[in-house]
Amino acid sequence: MKLAYTYDDHHSAGAEWERRELKEWLTDVFEAPAVKIEPRCTPQIRKHVETEFLNEGWALNVNLDQAHGLSVFAMQDDLAFQLQTGNMSRAPYDLLKLQYLFQSERIEAAALALPTKEAAKVIGDNIANAERVIKELELFDRVITVPILVVAFE
Length: 154
Fold this sequence. Notes:
With 154 residues, the protein is an alpha/beta fold. The chain has helices at 13-19, 23-29, 42-55, 91-103, 117-123, 130-139, and strands at residues 3-7, 59-65, 70-76, 79-83, 109-115, 148-153. A 6-stranded mixed sheet has the order 1-6-5-4-3-2, sandwiched between helices. Strand 4 (79-83), helix 4 and strand 5 form a beta-alpha-beta unit. The longest helix is centred in the N-terminal third of the chain and has 14 residues, at 42-55.
């Protein structure tokens, strides 16, 4: 697995991560040659990313609300992170969860990591991909107002 690119422009998300001196660390998480992009590799990707975040003191599987059982992949201070390697139908739901945390004043910025369109095709059928999510962020920029840094990997 390697970093393909980042999309920094959604409400200046890249600047928010840089201001906290975490953007380079975050993108380095996806420079992992030992993790191969291949069919059904999601468990290996998730395990690698979990380990990296735990090692940096991030809380994993943080509940949005106890009564609903919803969670995000990781949180630290005023940042949230979501990894999406599943079905495309789940990606807009991730955006909604991140927006909820922002509106609730629990975070100031977020990041969402997804495979590129080509990598998603290798992983499986109808897997969420960065290109589509970026288009949706551009379309809904007045609805999804939380600064979201998109990290695309392949």
